[in-house]
Amino acid sequence: MKKVQLSIYLDPEVFAGLEAYAQRQGKPKSLVAEAAIGSFLSPDDSDRREAAIAKRLDRIVRILERLERNDGITLETVALFIRFWLTSTPALPEQSSPAARAKGAERYDRFVDALGRRLSSGSTVLKEVSIESSEIANAAQVKG
To answer: For a Cys staple, 32 with which of 22, 37, 97, 117, CB 3.0–4.6 Å?
Structure first.
Protein backbone atom coordinates (compact mmCIF):
# COMPACT_ATOMS: atom_id res chain seq x y z
CA MET A 1 0.00 0.00 0.00
CA LYS A 2 1.33 3.38 -0.95
CA LYS A 3 1.86 5.86 1.86
CA VAL A 4 0.36 9.35 1.81
CA GLN A 5 2.67 12.30 2.16
CA LEU A 6 1.99 14.84 4.90
CA SER A 7 3.70 18.17 5.40
CA ILE A 8 3.63 19.54 8.94
CA TYR A 9 5.14 22.37 10.92
CA LEU A 10 6.89 21.62 14.21
CA ASP A 11 8.29 23.80 16.95
CA PRO A 12 12.08 23.81 16.78
CA GLU A 13 12.32 21.99 20.17
CA VAL A 14 9.91 19.26 19.07
CA PHE A 15 11.77 18.85 15.79
CA ALA A 16 15.11 18.64 17.63
CA GLY A 17 13.65 15.99 19.94
CA LEU A 18 12.32 14.03 16.95
CA GLU A 19 15.64 14.26 15.18
CA ALA A 20 17.63 13.19 18.27
CA TYR A 21 15.32 10.26 19.01
CA ALA A 22 15.37 9.05 15.40
CA GLN A 23 19.15 9.28 15.34
CA ARG A 24 19.50 7.34 18.62
CA GLN A 25 17.17 4.62 17.33
CA GLY A 26 18.77 4.58 13.89
CA LYS A 27 15.36 5.08 12.24
CA PRO A 28 14.12 7.67 9.74
CA LYS A 29 12.26 10.65 11.22
CA SER A 30 9.18 9.86 9.16
CA LEU A 31 8.97 6.36 10.68
CA VAL A 32 9.31 7.73 14.23
CA ALA A 33 6.67 10.41 13.52
CA GLU A 34 4.33 7.82 11.99
CA ALA A 35 4.67 5.56 15.03
CA ALA A 36 4.08 8.47 17.40
CA ILE A 37 0.95 9.59 15.54
CA GLY A 38 -0.33 6.00 15.40
CA SER A 39 0.21 5.61 19.13
CA PHE A 40 -1.52 8.91 19.82
CA LEU A 41 -4.55 7.91 17.76
CA SER A 42 -4.84 4.38 19.19
CA PRO A 43 -7.20 4.47 22.20
CA ASP A 44 -6.71 0.77 22.91
CA ASP A 45 -3.09 1.16 23.92
CA SER A 46 -3.76 3.95 26.40
CA ASP A 47 -6.81 2.13 27.80
CA ARG A 48 -4.76 -1.03 28.33
CA ARG A 49 -2.00 0.95 29.99
CA GLU A 50 -4.50 2.74 32.23
CA ALA A 51 -6.15 -0.57 33.20
CA ALA A 52 -2.78 -2.12 34.03
CA ILE A 53 -1.81 0.88 36.14
CA ALA A 54 -5.18 0.83 37.94
CA LYS A 55 -4.76 -2.89 38.68
CA ARG A 56 -1.28 -2.31 40.11
CA LEU A 57 -2.50 0.63 42.18
CA ASP A 58 -5.35 -1.47 43.59
CA ARG A 59 -2.87 -4.18 44.58
CA ILE A 60 -0.62 -1.59 46.24
CA VAL A 61 -3.59 -0.13 48.13
CA ARG A 62 -4.54 -3.60 49.45
CA ILE A 63 -0.96 -4.22 50.58
CA LEU A 64 -0.80 -0.83 52.31
CA GLU A 65 -4.12 -1.46 54.05
CA ARG A 66 -2.83 -4.82 55.31
CA LEU A 67 0.38 -3.18 56.54
CA GLU A 68 -1.62 -0.46 58.28
CA ARG A 69 -3.78 -3.10 59.98
CA ASN A 70 -0.71 -5.05 61.09
CA ASP A 71 0.92 -1.89 62.42
CA GLY A 72 -2.23 -1.08 64.36
CA ILE A 73 -2.27 -4.57 65.90
CA THR A 74 1.41 -4.31 66.77
CA LEU A 75 1.09 -0.87 68.37
CA GLU A 76 -1.99 -1.89 70.33
CA THR A 77 -0.23 -5.04 71.56
CA VAL A 78 2.84 -3.12 72.71
CA ALA A 79 0.73 -0.40 74.35
CA LEU A 80 -1.40 -2.98 76.17
CA PHE A 81 1.69 -4.84 77.39
CA ILE A 82 3.33 -1.63 78.60
CA ARG A 83 0.15 -0.60 80.46
CA PHE A 84 -0.13 -4.05 82.05
CA TRP A 85 3.54 -4.09 82.99
CA LEU A 86 3.47 -0.58 84.49
CA THR A 87 0.37 -1.30 86.56
CA SER A 88 1.50 -4.71 87.82
CA THR A 89 5.20 -4.07 88.56
CA PRO A 90 5.85 -2.52 91.97
CA ALA A 91 8.45 0.21 92.41
CA LEU A 92 11.83 -0.96 93.70
CA PRO A 93 13.21 0.16 97.05
CA GLU A 94 15.99 2.75 96.77
CA GLN A 95 18.71 0.48 98.25
CA SER A 96 18.19 -2.19 95.55
CA SER A 97 18.60 0.29 92.72
CA PRO A 98 22.18 -0.61 91.53
CA ALA A 99 21.45 -4.33 91.59
CA ALA A 100 18.12 -3.77 89.88
CA ARG A 101 19.78 -1.65 87.17
CA ALA A 102 22.37 -4.38 86.57
CA LYS A 103 19.64 -7.04 86.37
CA GLY A 104 17.60 -4.78 84.08
CA ALA A 105 20.58 -4.28 81.76
CA GLU A 106 21.13 -8.05 81.65
CA ARG A 107 17.48 -8.69 80.85
CA TYR A 108 17.50 -5.98 78.18
CA ASP A 109 20.56 -7.53 76.51
CA ARG A 110 18.81 -10.93 76.50
CA PHE A 111 15.68 -9.30 75.06
CA VAL A 112 17.67 -7.65 72.23
CA ASP A 113 19.40 -10.98 71.47
CA ALA A 114 16.08 -12.84 71.38
CA LEU A 115 14.55 -10.15 69.18
CA GLY A 116 17.49 -10.39 66.77
CA ARG A 117 17.14 -14.17 66.57
CA ARG A 118 13.39 -13.98 65.91
CA LEU A 119 13.75 -11.32 63.24
CA SER A 120 16.51 -13.22 61.46
CA SER A 121 14.53 -16.49 61.57
CA GLY A 122 11.40 -14.88 60.12
CA SER A 123 9.26 -16.02 63.04
CA THR A 124 6.88 -13.35 64.31
CA VAL A 125 4.32 -13.11 67.07
CA LEU A 126 1.67 -12.10 64.51
CA LYS A 127 2.26 -15.37 62.62
CA GLU A 128 2.09 -17.37 65.85
CA VAL A 129 -1.13 -15.64 66.95
CA SER A 130 -2.62 -16.21 63.50
CA ILE A 131 -1.70 -19.91 63.60
CA GLU A 132 -3.01 -20.30 67.16
CA SER A 133 -6.29 -18.51 66.41
CA SER A 134 -6.89 -20.61 63.28
CA GLU A 135 -6.20 -23.80 65.29
CA ILE A 136 -8.69 -22.69 67.96
CA ALA A 137 -11.29 -21.89 65.29
CA ASN A 138 -10.75 -25.30 63.66
CA ALA A 139 -11.07 -27.06 67.01
CA ALA A 140 -14.29 -25.18 67.73
CA GLN A 141 -15.73 -26.22 64.36
CA VAL A 142 -14.86 -29.87 65.00
CA LYS A 143 -16.60 -29.82 68.41
CA GLY A 144 -19.64 -27.89 67.13
So the answer is: 22
DSSP string, 36-60: HHHHHH-HHHHHHHHHHHHHHHHHH
Q: What is the DSSP string of 63-97?
A: HHHHHHHHHHHHHHHHHHHHHHHHHHSPPPPGGGH
- Residues with Cβ < 8 Å from 29, sequence gap 6 or more? 18, 19, 22
In the chain, domain spans: 12-41, 94-144
pLDDT value at position 144? Answer: 61
pLDDT digits (tens, 9 = 90+) for 1-47: 888 888 999 999 999 999 999 999 999 999 999 988 887 777 676 67
d(CA 106, CA 110): 6
Mean pLDDT of the chain: 85
User: Is the pTM higher than 0.85?
Assistant: no
Q: Are 41 and 51 in contact (CB under 8 A)?
A: no
